[in-house]
Design a protein that fits this description.
- It is a single chain.
- With 200 residues, the protein is mainly alpha-helical.
- The protein folds into 2 domains: 84 residues, Four Helix Bundle (Hemerythrin (Met), subunit A) (Up-down Bundle), CATH 1.20.120.1760; 112 residues.
- It is built from 7 helices and no strands.
- The radius of gyration is 19 Å and the shape is globular.
- The mean pLDDT is 85.
- Keywords: Lipid biosynthesis, Lipid metabolism, Membrane, Phospholipid biosynthesis, Phospholipid metabolism, Transferase, Transmembrane, Transmembrane helix.
Length: 200
């Protein structure tokens, strides 16, 4: 197994570790650790593709497992966000539906001997999802940990301004993610509509 494929496998192996920190409430600073794991796993996505293209190490395993690992990583975070009320089931469904549609078109193209590369809108969608998850995780960590860092007056219950700002920012980014998800999905299908017409 070459290095890019090892990085892909490592990214998939980090997903259950990420979920442990997201779901086990007794772990101190769990959201911060989860953010570090998510950031590291996301970086391997860039790294394995870069190495594979640079060194001519593109394999069928990588073509299949690399995008699958990416989707599993993001969806693991989004499912947790539903439970944590940082997102809604509808938004997660929209993102999931888009990925299934795009993957279906890619499979149709592959059967016809055509490889469809991700366009700029798809890349922007992916980056926005990563930023959204990281901002939301930092907001959750600060919300959970802020009494440890700040002097709180007796009876105070509202989180400090940085927490409110980051939570608000995460919902703004979430809106951008949904827009890019829908637009990039329709754009992808429209650009490759000729492939759909060739289905027998």
């Amino acid at each position: 197994m070459n290095l890019p494929n090892k990085l892909t496998v490592m990214r998939m192996a980090l997903i259950p570790v990420f979920l442990v920190f997201m779901l086990v409430e007794s772990i101190p600073h769990r959201y911060l650790i989860a953010a570090v794991i998510f950031a590291a796993a996301s970086f391997t996505d860039y790294l394995d593709g870069h190495i594979a293209r640079r060194d001519g190490l593109v394999t069928n395993f990588g073509k299949l497992m690399d995008p699958l690992a990416d989707k599993l990583l993001v969806f693991s975070a989004l499912v947790c966000f539903i439970e944590l009320e940082m997102s809604s089931a509808l938004i997660v469904f929209i993102i999931l539906a888009r990925e299934f549609l795009v993957t279906s078109v890619r499979l149709i193209a592959a059967e016809q001997g055509t490889v469809i590369a991700a366009d700029i809108w798809g890349k922007m969608k992916t980056v926005s999802q990563i930023v959204w998850v990281l901002v939301a995780l930092i907001a959750l960590w600060l919300e959970e940990s802020w009494p440890l860092f700040m002097t709180v007056s007796p009876g105070a219950s509202a989180p400090p301004a940085p927490v409110i700002f980051l939570i608000g920012l995460s919902f703004v980014i979430q809106t951008i993610v949904v827009i890019l998800t829908v637009f990039s999905g329709f754009n992808y299908i429209w650009k490759n509509r000729s492939l759909l017409g060739d289905i027998k």
